[in-house]
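Problem statement: downstream parser choked on a complex file, so we are re-checking the raw output for the uracil run. The parser issue turned out to be on our end (a line-ending mismatch), but while we're here, posting the original submission so the record is complete.
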Amino acid sequence: MQMTDLIIKKRDGAELSAEEIQFMIDGYVKGVIPDYQMSAMCMAIYLRGMNDRETLDLTMAMVNSGEIVDLSAIAGVKADKHSTGGVGDKTSLILCPMVAACGLRIAKMSGRGLGHTGGTLDKLESFSGYNIAIGEQRFIENVNRIGIALIGQTADIVPADKKLYALRDVTGTVPSIPLIVSSIMSKKLASGADVIVLDVKCGSGAFMKDEAQARELARGLTRIGRLAGKKCAAVITDMDQPLGRMVGNALEVKEAISVLKGETRGDLLELCLTLGSCILTEAGTAPDADTARAMLLRTIEDGAALRKLAELVAAQDGDAEAVYDTSRLPLAPVQTEVISEEAGFLSHMDCEKVGLISMHLGGGRATKESEIDLSVGLVLHKKIGDRVEQGESLATIHAATKEKAKEAAALLRDCCTFSAEPVERPAFIKAIIT
Ligand code: URA
């Protein structure tokens, strides 16, 4: 078999066989197939697409390029959730304890934030002492004992994706549905859960700016998940503005705790109930979405989900007292209000730029090696559709210095557009694909 022939075949719109796809991934991971040939193949896939059979074969070849996490020592149904990445997305901190409090098992490997989007591991490290590297044995023991563990990736899963993604990033071939689906689903399948729910973000702060593309991606992800034998659902959600009101690591933990305490409702709780009911119904724990929502809401009302978060933090050596007393979480030394110079209805917010403001304050990473400041970020007082008066505060910036706060305040004002006419609030849940 020759890689050149496979490139020509795909370039001309033909289907690649399972053997050909396996040959290409094996050869690329081993370094036998060079980057220039794989670049040409990625472009051919980008232009010609792949059918479900090819996408599944590509996904499985990628899964088999590395280790596969074995969760068989954990009793019960294991659930996992994936978000395509957003701003202010602290969903896992709320959803995972809620779902675990309903009796499902959460054995989750999460990532760190990069660029304008945050990562669950950084948020969890806002709890002093929280250990993201407890080792495989403790990971399994904790899930069997308390139903939940959230750690950093241990096994060397899907090395093919690390190499391919870096190549796609510099060859204009990231936005190809079969390539995105195989990249995301290979990592989810290698992580070993039985039920996978996907939160596909759509809007100015998301990877998918357009709803039609987000739908196509969500459908592709669920189809491949199911073909691979998993229970799988996807939700398409708005990312034209940050999720909830807080952006920044410790701030997002505070907001998540406030939802778990039943003090904060709105889009964030709605998203957790929607994703959670997909998990509970797919797992067969609840017969329908209404029952699932009621079960999930009960975990907030009776405090079970909040206690589950505290158990998680304690089981991973973190300061669990901070779950009940959030003054123990990191707090930035400077807090500055962002005063609106205009009056009107907030009509647009450049969500990606809001994420970048938090990153420049020190809350996110420009490169994988960057150190982050867990205390910084921003708290939005206004969201799209809200009336704003001149002189009113749009947000509070939490910063390390006055200079950084001033800079961030000016940037945030530039992210906001106002309209003299009332503006409709964007629909938050755009579609549920089960
Ligand atoms: N996220 C991934 O993990 N892979 C992609 O290809 C795109 C987004």
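For whoever reads this later: The chain is about 45% helix and 15% strand.
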